[in-house]
Amino acid sequence: MPIVKYRRATEPLWHEWDGKAQKCGLRHTVYAVNGDQYTGEWLDNLKHGKGTQVWKRTGAIYSGDWKFGKRDGYGSYSIPDPITKEYKKVYTGWWKNDRKCGYGAMFYPGGERYEGEWSSGLQSGWGRMYYQDGSIYEGQWLAGRPGGQGMLRLPNENRYEGGWKDGKKHGPGKFFYLDKGQLFEGIWAADIPKCGILIDFGRDEAPAPTQYPIPKV
């Protein structure tokens, strides 16, 4: 009886190559087609764990946690200075689904700085903002702007305490004119005081009090 030999089935060579190309675990630097590079941990061919990403077009660097290909966890994002080429930190804190989320600090051009809570990439919750002119806002934020209750302290120590909406004074609030020794308490709308009462407050300690005190009604 003749013996029939069947040809042994073999997998295509590209199957073997594809299997070796699947990234999982710690890898050395992997370069993308556009020149971006990533060094760190992988899972199922996605960035997952600890790793550092460098974007070729901008030179920006992110170093921190990843989850299924997106920044997720704690990490820092830096960009090179266009003149000195030295890296300057832009954001350090928590991320979720590739956006700032949780507590973090943002460093802006000109020296401004925000420290506080984030949601979906925007300031949201409690936070403190240091402005370039020396003013400081501390309080609640909503969708990237002061919203809720907060205090704004000006460089001359005058301050506003009260409600905010869309980044402007809104609702009941108090403005302390400590340089003149006066206090305005009233209602605000879109940064404009609509009605209220102005009284003397700390007039004896004020550096530049008004010439005459406000008479009591």
From TrEMBL:
Keyword tags: Cytoplasmic vesicle, Repeat
UniProt entry tagged with the keyword Repeat: yes
Location in or out of the cell: Cytoplasmic vesicle, Secretory vesicle, Acrosome
GO CC annotation, single: acrosomal vesicle
Gene3D superfamilies (UniProt xref): Histone H3 K4-specific methyltransferase SET7/9 N-terminal domain
Alphabetical list of InterPro entries matching this protein: MORN (IPR003409), MORN3 (IPR052472)
Function description: Assembles a suppression complex (suppresome) by tethering SIRT1 and MDM2 to regulate composite modifications of p53/TP53. Confers both deacetylation-mediated functional inactivation, by SIRT1, and ubiquitination-dependent degradation, by MDM2, of p53/TP53, promoting a proliferative and cell survival behaviors. May play a role in the regulation of spermatogenesis.
Name listed for the protein in its UniProt record: MORN repeat-containing protein 3
